[in-house]
Amino acid sequence: MTQFLNNIDSKLPNVQTSIFAVMSKLAFENNAINLSQGYPDFKSDPQLIKLVNQAMVDGKNQYAPMPGVFGLRTQIANKIELLYNAKYNPENEITITAGATQAIFTVLAASIHKGNEVIVFKPAYDCYEPAIKLFGGKPITIQLDPETFKVDWDMVKMLISSKTKMIIINTPHNPSGAVLSKSDMLELEKLLINTNILLLSDEVYEHIIYDGEEHQSAALFPGLAERAFITASFGKTFHNTGWKMGYCLAPAALMKEFQKVHQYNVFSVNHPMQVALETYLKTPNNYLKLGGFYQQKRDLFLDLMKDSRFEFKPSKGTYFQLMNYKNISVERDVDFAKRLIKEIGVASIPVSVFNDDNLDTKVLRFCFAKSDDTLKKAAEILCKI
Ligand code: PMP
Ligand code: GLN
Predict the structure, then answer these.
(1) Is 40 in the pocket of ligand 1 (CB under 6 A)?
(2) Cα 307 to the chain's mean position, in Å?
(3) CA distances (Å), 341 to each of 40, 106, 124, in order?
(4) Which of 168, 186, 209, 341 could be disulfide-bonded to 200 (CB atoms 3.0-4.6 Å)?
């Protein structure tokens, strides 16, 4: 192709291809077991697939309403009331999105003005900071303790200023598998009360939480809910990340601003899948059993890895497990992860890419949303190194 311009004055000059795309591609090229990018290698419920097929046969193949199918929004409102005893009006406080990524991007597009500061905890999921910057905002990052991943709320208090527009939290947390406790949420609520600071609460793993812990949604805390955009992902919950379906909850005044952007960056999202999800959500067990399902996988994986040279503490939520390889190598995590793919055939994600200044703590993230057979094969190889 002839190049008219070889430079469009990049708005994100330092952004590279996402680590998930890089590692999955490398895994594919090397025929490695892929425990890197977070997606299941097993099928979603055939009943849900049948419901999507049926919706297509029934002719639900044209644009859905801009905020989403009303019945699905109603089912989401019912779910939030059942789980968190919080009321969101399906008329004007819920929008169906093309995955949580679009919801997060739209929240930031709708709320960040030039010069606004946004507090982000590191390690952080990769889509937050580029989006903040695209809209002229400034990420103010706080590196979490690499052992405990606990938030130092005094530090947060120190970094809040008149420029702070938003705080982003993510619980259960990708990549660490840590969860925010009730007392964390109360601390945050105390900090934000009497301020105009918004909250983006990324809760895509809300149902994937272990050992009897309860998910502390921002919806549970009135002083947080009143200022919160809560983002969620059906891809994570129903084993179909490729469908890119999710939603956003927010009080009406915030949701109004969200929808002003949503209607121009996507307008409305996949119609037959919304119709299917509406029916599927009517059975709470379809999401309530998820924690137990993944806890078995976590426990299997950790049991298989117990004699390896990796060190780990069980993940408290998400379908990710961190493993420290300091007993095996002194290589940088990115190099070590690439070598594992090429030489032993197991792919993971190096955690430094999510940290402030790419802090390297010799930790890899393994996704255990895989069949028991895949986990056994991967662990057998990892135990040999
Ligand atoms: N937030 C976090 C913390 C994630 O791990 C992911 C990846 N699933 C997303 C948001 C994006 O979710 P989705 O695939 O629905 O866009
Ligand atoms: N959320 C997935 C993960 O953490 C990746 C999604 C993506 O590839 N952007 O692995």
Answers:
(1) no
(2) 30
(3) 19, 35, 24
(4) 168
